[in-house]
Amino acid sequence: MKLHISMHLRGPELADSAAVSVVRTVVRHLHVLDHDTKTSNECSLTLVFCVSGSLGRCPFEGIQVDGLSRRKRSIVIKAAVPDCLSNPIELEQFMFASLREAIHLAKDKFSNAKIPFLRDEELEFVDQFRASLSQQ
Fold this sequence. Notes:
about 25% strand, four-stranded mixed beta sheet
């Protein structure tokens, strides 16, 4: 599976926020690991973290599917970052919990679309990824 993580910031003041810092660290480390199973049935999961700011609030709470493409074998899932999270440790915990939840949700959606997806392998990767990040 190809894993992409990005952010939707709803305000310019968020550019230097703790949420952005944590996501940048995770994304930088993810690129170093270059997680990609490179199978013929390759899928991709894009997880977008939505952060409320001065230009608007995230229009949802929790996690939701934003789009699924059978042809591209890809899914986009959005996670709303709670306003109460500002501590980098709590933000990292939220990110990894959201990533695990997104993998479970992706499995359900891919299964409904008859697209093979190895949830257990992806969850194992997330656990290894988090452990390697905490050793840094």
